[in-house]
Amino acid sequence: MCSILHTACLTLLTLMAAIFTSKSSPAPVALASASKSVFLSALGNRVRELRARRGMTRKMLSAEADVSERHLAQLESGEGNISVALLRRIAKALSVSIGELFERDVELSAEEKLLSQFLEQLPAHRVQQVIARLREELESEEKARRTRIALIGLRGAGKSTLGAQLASRLNLPFMELDREVEKEAGMPLAEIFSLYGQSGYRRIEKRALENVLRQMERAVIAVGGGVVSEKETFQLLLSNCYTVWVKAQPEQHMARVLAQGDVRAMANNAEAMEDLRWILEARTPLYGKADMQLDTSRDTVDESFTKLRQSVERNFAQK
């Protein structure tokens, strides 16, 4: 069994090395060396991207995957020829398959492939009919979606402050999803992470969001910044809420969190600002899927709230 696994792993590494190299044909030894270097560099960048997207420091990933920080540092720098066993533990801690460490999110889902095949088999006039029917249904769903407002983004952007003000203005209940997670688990966030790790927290977060969406037809919800790292949970949010990305510069995020007295892992980490920039960079394409972006960097709270209120009142579905 070990021999088969070893052979399979060597084959996988060879194939991945081929993917990341050019089609030119230098000397075999030089090609193999270059392929290995490019492959390890791409793998290291991918691991760091996934870690940043989930908001995990290297220390946090090390603890959850039971892999030394030295190994992780070597892996992310493209210098570590890490074993497959350790890669499996890292993938598990990042809540991805080991295959996803080697590929970006470019593959169509099974549903998307099925839909594409279905449409390809229809004559042109039937495609137009299908599109018209879908548009009618989506317009109805879109109106229902805009009865809830969800504020997303990193800590320190102003989600809780602005969300509470907006809820008061619209006479809606205001909810912080983290508080709902604590209710669902029956314990504070720190204990949830300590007992279940980040992957456990994300499972509880999804259940909490499902409960909120089922119970609250109209509400303003402040959502933790890491929700975007969970594809299904984030899609659930996008499909059921008018989403607003509340953002600021990394330095302002950090300063505001510290001013609030929050001394969690990011504040105590010597590499906090570097990690924060990586997190923001990795998540920006995901945050960018929001219906609206609100940059609070240069505005006062009142100025930011005015921009938020004006945009939401134009788009919020009144009943």
Comma- or semicolon-separated keywords:
single chain; 319 residues; alpha/beta; 434 Repressor (Amino-terminal Domain); Rossmann fold; 3 domains; five-stranded parallel beta sheet
Describe what you observe in this structure:
With 319 residues, this protein is α/β, with parallel strands linked by helices. It folds into three domains: 2-101, Orthogonal Bundle (434 Repressor (Amino-terminal Domain)); 108-145, no CATH class; 146-315, Rossmann fold, CATH 3.40.50. Helix content is 65%, strand content 7%. It is built from 15 helices and five strands. It has helices spanning 2-19, 28-53, 58-65, 69-76, 84-93, 110-120, 124-145, 159-170, 177-185, 189-215, 231-240, 250-259, 265-268, 272-287, 301-315; strands spanning 148-152, 174-176, 219-222, 242-247, 292-295. Strands 2-3-1-4-5 form a five-stranded parallel beta sheet, sandwiched between helices. Helix 2 (28-53) crosses helix 14, helix 8 (159-170) packs across helix 15 and helix 9 (177-185) packs across helix 10 (189-215). The protein is globular and about 55 Å long. Residues 1-26 have low confidence and may be disordered.
Summarize this entry quickly.
With 319 residues, the protein is an alpha/beta fold. The chain is 65% helix and 7% strand.
The largest beta-sheet arranges its strands as 2-3-1-4-5
The arrangement of helices and strands along the chain is: HHHHHHHEHEHHEHEHHHEH
State the end-to-end CA separation. 63 Å
In the CATH scheme, what's the topology name of the largest domain? Rossmann fold
Query: Briefly, what CATH class of the largest domain?
Result: Alpha Beta
